[in-house]
Structure formats: C-alpha cells, structure tokens
Amino acid sequence: MSNTKEFIAKKVAKYFKAGDVVNLGIGIPTLVGNYIEEGVLLHTENGLLGYGGSPEPGKEDDDFTGAGAQYLTLVEGASTFDSATSFAIVRGGHLAATVLGALEVDEMGNIANWSRPGKIVGMGGAMDLVNGARQVIVAMEHTAKGNPKILKKCKLPLTGAGVVTKIVTELCVIDVTKEGLKLSEIAEGVTIDEVIAKTDAKLIIPENISIM
After folding, report:
1. pLDDT digit string (tens) for 108-129?
2. Is residue 35 a contact partner of residue 10, using CB atoms and an 8 Å limit?
3. Which of 30, 93, 131, 164 is the most exposed place for a label (fewest CB within 10 A)?
C-alpha cells in the first residue's frame, strides 16, 4: 500500500474519539481502521460492530470480513447481527461518521462513488450511509491520472447530494461549508497554488491555513 494512502488514512483516523461509531468504506477508508483510537467502534453494514485493524498474515478468519470482503479483527465486546439491524443503526442516525472513497466530489458537497462510464463500482450501502451518518468524510487521492476529482459539479451519477462534510487527500483538507469549499489544511511541502492547480472547484482560501 502506498505511503500516500497511508498518510490519508492516518489523518482521517485523528478525527474520531472513544465512543464514536464510525463506518469505513472500501479502498483508502479501510486503512483508517489500522490507526483508530482505542474505544472508537467501527461498524460494517454486513453486520458487525467493534472491529480493529487487519489481521496478521495467516490469522485471517473467513467468518469476520467487512462489506468489501476484507478480513477484520474483533475487539473486546464486539457484536454481530443481521443486515437489517445493521442498516437500522445507519438509518437511525447512530453513526458519528462514515468515511468513503469517491470518484468525484463537488462544490455543493455532492459525491459520486459508485458508477462511471463502462464500469459500475457498486453502490453497496453508500446511499444509506451518506444520508444516515452525522458526518460524511471523503478520503481519496486528489487526482486520478492527473485529472481533478474535486469538481465544480459532479459529472457522474450521484451517491448523495449535499452530504459531504469534509474531504481529505494527500495534498490537503477541505471543509464543505454553506459558502463553498474551504481549504483548512495543506500537507507539508505543498503550496496553496499547487492545490488550486489540481482542483477544478473554486476554493475559499482563509488567511491562516494549518499544516496537516
């Protein structure tokens, strides 16, 4: 796994505290579980609450996998249940946050992460997650093959409209506000001009920007 993806995952993990119930999507979000603070309860929509990082090689258990079929480890007090109960947790507003990857995000906080021309990535539980979680954090690389993924307006079919609260990439952290996309942090060695050049959407640039 690239250092870039690990960097993003470590940053996102810092947003959660003990007692939070958090759902992690596939891709980069899955890595967040390796850096999560003790006491954060990780949820997967196929029916598990209370898992930790990836198991050591050779210690994988086919009975404990995430919604993306990745192997999981259980923490003390973990519970398993059916999908109906799992989605009741999501739809009931019990998730502090969901962390998702994205193909596109735009100025309105719209997210597209399930379909692109010629290929369906898969909706999974994302449509429920983006509407049920109190925060929707997008964890993704800033560009794809050199093309911006943070756009003025999404071009692909939406997963959710106006639902994203924060975007974390290897270059920066962007908060989604009523006024638009606000650049709040940049990675060490990255310039504001570089972020602007690799972002299609208009960014609000405050006077003080922290280092990630």
Report:
1. 999 999 887 777 666 678 999 9
2. yes
3. 93
18-to-13, 21, 38 alpha-carbon distances in Å: 11, 9, 6
104 is catalytic: no
Alpha carbons 66 and 78: distance in angstroms, whole number: 13
Residue pLDDT, tens place only, 65-87: 888 788 989 999 999 999 999 99
CA gap 64, 196 in Å, rounded: 42
Is 70 exceeded by the pLDDT of residue 1? no
Burial class (CB in 10 A: 0-12, 13-18, 19+), 179: exposed
Provide the residue type at 148 as one letter: P
3-state DSSP: the chain helix, strand, coil percent, rounded to 5?
20, 30, 50
Tokens 């050199």 belong to which residue? 146
Averaged pLDDT for residues 45-60: 91
Looking at residue 200, its amino acid is D
At residue 127, φ and ψ (nearest 5 deg) are -60, -40
Closest to 48 measured CA to CA, from 35, 31, 59, 61: 61
Query: Is residue 15 pLDDT above 90, yes or no?
Result: yes
Number of H helices, E strands in the chain: 5, 18
Catalytic residue among 6, 37, 38, 45: 45
CA distance 182 to 128: 26
